[in-house]
Write a structure and sequence with these properties.
- The chain is α/β, with parallel strands linked by helices.
- It has three domains: 306 residues, FAD/NAD(P)-binding domain (3-Layer(bba) Sandwich); 158 residues, no CATH class; 125 residues, Fumarate reductase/succinate dehydrogenase flavoprotein-like, C-terminal domain (Methane Monooxygenase Hydroxylase, Chain G, domain 1, Up-down Bundle), CATH 1.20.58.
- The chain has 21 helices and 23 strands.
- Helix 1 runs parallel beside helix 13 and helix 17 packs antiparallel against helix 18.
């Protein structure tokens, strides 16, 4: 759906640019962006629109796992739970602000039941309890699932709700520039029209008072990713506009198939598949894990654990399940081989006696009745939708091997936000994975909850602010030097020879090699120098041939800005005395006497948050203490009075 209700057209640097004025623009159409739109409408707020490059794209709609997890307040069984306990679980992940953790806990039930009301089929038992299970980094069994496509289903029901309200949507527009007009208290959003046939008519400018960034994580900065093909992210645009980044060093990496891109977590591992590696041409098949374990059953115990310890974790590497991640990485990135999962044959090519596994694996598989002869039979018995998922994507696990790699899956960090999910730039909000509210670790599925809570909080804030008229001033557009310089890129990078795709592949491959789960300090420094050179000489270093490649030019520009900030964060972390933690192993740590003076060692300082601000020459870095979980001791009457007064004044305290 696309409602192109444009206002005016102006000319600048050879471009005819369409201009639109709205009080609020929501950038992105995943579960968080659609929820923000739905909430704004439900708060009787009208002057807003959604801008997206693909209403059917993005991570929410096109990613998942064997049973994609939604983490929430416990609602079943005899184990007591509370908002405080859930907030402390989020907060204990390290480098997490307590007010964000409290909001994500306090609004967990409200957001969960909103999805239930809209039609997401979360399972409940005969008594109405929404059943749950234990996920990674979860002390209490709070996880639930609506199946492998949980986030897709969330997106579908939210989209249905948005469409039923006739909310304005601009599709096939990719954001390529954010200009922070602090002198006007306005935000300008420049978008590229993916359907443009002429280079001179390919841009649209949105002018707004509020911008909600809901574009997901910076999926494009790496080559090895499990993010869907259609997700790119827009973090670099926000950095360039002055938005700070927080915890950018903290990522989740895990094993994933590469065609199609999908997490191989949960029962994909618990059915005990066989791991093999080959030469690039598919020859010299070897079951390489057998070389590193005492026997087949020790190997199987760790394969099983990999199911619900899916993210790579340096603490589980030497003797735990993350050693498998390391060995897969070694086969693919160091030895240059390919790694596959074989569901047709057992590990070691022999029958597996479930009762010879360790207690955790034995109890789980016996309880599930998983005594079948082969991995594919066990997988079908325990979770047939996981088999059908790959069938739907053209892969039959009963006859085909599945190629995997260690891939970037989720950025725990992101854009720095306050307890209303507003960034340090007034008027710009970040929700979903774009927001950096997670720390070093987090429970699996916490991101789906955070996206719903953050987008609801941002919508609440915006809907309660006084309306300010948004006008289109064509002269201000024509005479703006930053806008003019950006638009000139279209003509300056046009050439008879194109190099943009080659540059994209090169910088993304190097980012995965030096700044992924196994980080090389010297390699990151060399790559940062290269990225800076490309950034500083972009108009002369990058070329394209026709309008069909112009989108890739803008994408490369955003990636280079993002890579600069992320590399600067990782390098500063090491220089500040940081050690391997979470999802990152640093194999080249500088000596302690070379480290910058900091109040605390960065690795030990999980009570600290690293913040970065992009700069054309270099990034500015600061470390600050986390905001603690707020104490709440006010009486009901006091809170009720404040609530009534704030509503009356349209003010949030």
């Amino acid at each position: 759906m696309s409602l192109m209700t444009f206002g005016s057209i102006f000319e600048l640097a050879g471009q005819r640019i369409q201009a639109v004025a709205r009080d609020t623009v929501i950038l992105g159409s995943g579960a968080a962006g659609l929820n923000a739109a739905d909430c704004l409408f439900n708060h009787d707020y009208q002057d807003f629109c959604i801008v997206t490059d693909n209403i059917k794209g993005g991570s929410s709609r096109n990613s998942g796992s064997d049973k994609q997890t939604y983490y929430k307040l416990g609602m079943t069984g005899d184990r007591p739970d509370s908002v405080q306990e859930l907030a402390e679980t989020f907060y204990s992940g390290g480098s997490v602000d307590g007010d964000n953790a409290l909001c994500e806990a306090a609004m967990s039930a409200e957001c969960f039941f909103n999805l239930v009301r809209l039609g997401v089929e979360f399972p409940y038992n005969d008594y109405g309890e929404y059943v749950s299970y234990i996920t990674d980094h979860d002390p209490g069994g709070r996880a639930t699932s609506a199946g492998p496509y949980t986030s897709r289903r969330m997106t579908e029901v939210l989209e249905d709700s948005v469409l039923s309200k006739h909310i304005e949507i601009h599709d096939h527009l990719r954001a390529v520039k954010i200009i922070n007009k602090t002198d006007q208290n306005k935000i300008w959003l420049v978008c590229f029209n993916q359907n443009a046939e002429k280079e001179g008519e390919c841009l649209t400018l949105f002018v707004c008072n509020h911008l909600i960034i809901a574009t997901g994580g910076p999926a494009s900065i790496y080559a090895d990713v499990v993010y869907p093909e259609g997700q790119f992210g827009a973090s670099g645009l926000a950095f360039e506009a002055g938005v700070k980044g927080a915890n950018l060093t903290e990522w989740q990496y895990g094993l994933a198939s590469i065609n199609p891109r999908w997490n191989v977590s949960g029962t994909y591992m618990q059915c005990l598949p066989r791991f093999i590696s080959t030469l690039p041409d598919g020859t010299d098949e070897r079951e390489f894990l057998l070389d590193y374990y005492a026997d087949c059953y020790e190997m199987c115990n760790n394969i099983f654990l990999k199911g619900y310890q899916w993210p790579f974790d340096v603490k589980k590497m030497k003797k735990g399940s993350s050693r498998i991640d390391q060995l897969v990485y070694q086969e693919t990135k160091v030895k240059g081989r390919r790694v596959f999962l074989d569901f047709m044959n057992n590990p070691g090519l022999k029958s597996i006696d479930i009762n010879r596994l360790n207690e955790k694996a034995k109890m789980y598989l016996n309880k599930a009745g998983a005594h079948q002869a082969t991995p594919i039979e066990r997988l079908k018995h325990m979770n047939e939708p996981a088999v059908n998922l790959y069938l739907d994507k053209g892969v039959d696990l009963s006859t085909e091997k599945l190629e995997i790699r260690l891939c970037a899956q989720h950025n725990n960090g992101g854009l720095c936000v306050n307890r209303w999910w507003q960034t340090n730039v007034p008027g710009i909000f970040a929700v979903g994975e774009a927001a950096g509210t997670h720390g070093v670790i987090r429970p699996g599925g916490a991101s789906l909850n955070a996206g719903q809570v953050g987008s609801r909080r941002a919508a609440q804030w915006i809907s309660q602010t006084d309306a300010v008229e948004t006008e289109i001033n064509l002269d201000s557009f024509r005479n703006d030097p930053e806008l003019g310089q950006f638009v000139e890129l279209i003509s300056k990078t046009k050439n008879s020879i194109s190099n943009v795709e080659g540059l994209l592949k090169s910088v993304k491959t190097k980012m995965s090699a030096y700044a992924g789960p196994f980080r090389q300090f010297e390699g990151m420094q060399v790559l940062l120098d290269e990225v800076n050179q490309l950034n500083n000489n972009f108009s002369s270093a990058v070329t394209y041939t026709d309008v069909r490649e112009l989108e890739a030019v803008f994408r490369l520009r955003e990636i280079l800005i993002s890579q600069k900030v992320y590399l600067a964060a990782m390098i500063d972390y090491v220089a500040s005395g940081g050690k391997s933690r979470g999802g990152a192993l640093y194999d080249s740590i500088i000596e302690a006497d070379q480290a910058k003076e900091k109040p605390h060692n960065a690795d030990q300082g999980t009570n600290l948050i690293q913040e970065l601000r992009w700069g054309r020459e270099e990034c500015q870095v600061e470390w600050r203490p986390v905001r603690p979980i707020p104490a709440r001791q006010e009486s009901f009457e006091t809170v009720w009075r404040k609530f009534r007064e704030s509503k009356a004044r349209n003010v949030f305290c």
